[in-house]
Amino acid sequence: MKKVRIGIVGLGNMGFAHAHSILAGKIPRLELGAVSDVNSDKIARVPQVKGFKTAAGMMASGLIDAILVATPHYDHTSLGIAALKAGLHVLLEKPISVHRADCERLIAAHRGREGRQVFAAMFNQRTDLYYQKIRALIQAGELGEIRRVNWIITNWFRTHAYYASGGWRATWAGEGGGVLLNQCPHNLDLFQWIFGMPVELTARCGFGRYHDIEVEDDVTATMRFANGATGVFITSTGEAPGTNRLEVVGERGKLVYEQDRILFTRNEVPMGEFSRTTPHSFATPPIWDVSIPVAGHGGQHNEVLQNFTDAILDGTPLIAPAPEGIHSVELANAMLLSAWTAKPVALPIDGRKYERMLKAKIAESAKLGKKKKSVAAAPVDFAKSFGR
Ligand SMILES: NC(=O)c1ccc[n+]([C@@H]2O[C@H](COP(=O)([O-])OP(=O)(O)OC[C@H]3O[C@@H](n4cnc5c(N)ncnc54)[C@H](O)[C@@H]3O)[C@@H](O)[C@H]2O)c1
After folding, report:
1. What per-residue confidence (pLDDT) applies to 73?
2. pLDDT at 366
3. Which residues line ligand 1 (CB under 6 A)?
4. Across-strand partners of 266?
5. Among candidates 158, 157, 163, which has minimal Cα distance to 373?
6. Is residue 56 within a helix (H) or strand (E), and if so which, with residue range?
7. What is the residue-averaged pLDDT of the chain?
8. Residue to substitute in 38, 184, 237 for testing ligand 1 pocket (most ligand atoms within 8 angstroms of CB)
C-alpha cells in the first residue's frame, strides 16, 4: 500500500474540517476515499468522493482502508467496534467513548489485531510542543518527585447559542456529560499523559450552573496520587475571561505554564532536603530561573492524521494509541461519580456501576421530558473551538 484511503463518518464541524484538510492535500499519502453521514445535506458538502448514508455501507464498500469516526460520542463505541471487525484501521475522535465500560468494549475489540490494524485517537493536543516539553522535563526528573499539580483550564467558554446548536449537545443521552466529556478530554488526557493517574479524587460539579443544560459546565476536583502528591483540576465553560494555568511543584522546583510561557524556578537543593538540613527557621532554598524556549503549538489535528498514516504505512509509533483514551474517560467518569454521590472516588472505578448510573440519569431526564431550547447558531469559527 502506497497511500491510505480513509473514510470519514460524521461530517459535522470536526469531520468536515478533517475532510477539508485531507482534500487540500495537507496530509501526504492520505487520501479521502469516501464519507458517511446520516444527514444527506452534510454528505453533499463533500461532493469529491462517494457518500454513504450508513457507516456500514461505507465500511463494506471496498473504497477505504481506514476510518475516522467524528460522530457524537456514544457512536464512537459501536462504529469503532464495527470498523475494527471489518478489518479497517481506526482513528477515533475524542473521547474514545463516553464511559469506562464502553472503552473496555472497544479495547477488547482491538485485542489480537494489534499487529494488523492501527487503532488511534485524535488527541491533537499531544502534538503541542509546550505540553511535550513539560512532559519531557518531568520524565527526565528535572522537577524531582512531584508534590502538587494544579490545573485551572477555564478557557473553554461556550455561549447559550453553542449549547442550543445541536440536539445531542449537553445531554446525558446525547453527549454523556458536559465540559468533562466534550471540551476537557484533551486536558484530562494530557493530565494523565504527563502526571499519571491519581488513586483517588473528589469533585464538585455545577450541573447547568451557567447554561440551561442538564450536564456539568463547571468542575472543581481534588486528587491524591500514590506517592501522596495532590492535584487540583478546575474547568468551566461559563467563565470569561478564562484561564489556562498549569502549576507543578516538585522537590527540585516549580513550573508554571501560562500564556504561552513556561516558567521554571529551580531549587538548588531539593526542598525537602533543604528543610531538613538548614538551621534557619525562615530560609528558603536558593533558586535559579530557567528559561525554556518552545517553538509553538505543534501540528495539532493534521499531525495526528499524518502520524496515523505513517503508522499504517511505515509502522511509526502512534502519538495517541486509542486504548490510552480510557484514562481521560475514567477521570471524567470519576469526577461525575464523586459529584453525584458527594463522596471521594477510588480509581480505577467500577465501569459497569458507572454505566448503570449514567443510564439512570438518561432515564430520569427522559421521564422529566427535558428538552433543550434550540436556536440556529451563527456560523462557527471552528479554529476558535479547539482551545489551548
Ligand atoms: N479534536 C478536536 O479538537 C475536536 C473538536 C471538536 C469536536 N471534536 C469531536 O468530534 C466529534 C464530532 O463533534 P462535532 O462538533 O463535529 O459534532 P457535530 O454535531 O457538528 O457533527 C456530528 C455529525 O455526525 C453526524 N452523525 C451523527 N450520528 C451519526 C452516525 N451514526 N453515522 C454517521 N453520521 C452521524 C451528524 O449528522 C453530524 O453531521 C465529537 O466526538 C467531538 O468531541 C473534536
Report:
1. 95
2. 85
3. 9-15, 36-39, 42, 55, 70-73, 75, 93-94, 122, 124, 166, 182, 385-386
4. 253, 288
5. 163
6. helix 55-59
7. 95
8. 38
pTM: 0.96
* CA dihedral angle for residue 358, residue 103, residue 183, residue 384, rounded to 10 degrees: -140
Q: What distance in Å separates the CA atoms of residue 309 and residue 370, rounded to the nearest whole number?
A: 43
Q: Which residue among 14, 124, 127 has the greatest number of ligand 1 atoms within 8 angstroms of its CB, and so is best to mutate?
A: 14
**Contact between residue 154 and residue 242 where contact means Cβ atoms under 8 Å apart:** yes
pLDDT in tens, 306-350: 999 999 999 999 999 999 999 999 999 999 999 999 999 999 999
The count of other CB atoms within 10 Å of the CB of residue 356 is: 11
Domains and CATH numbers, the chain: 4-123+299-318 (3.40.50.720), 126-298+328-367 (3.30.360.10)
Secondary structure (3-state) at 72: coil
| 380 has pLDDT over 60 | no
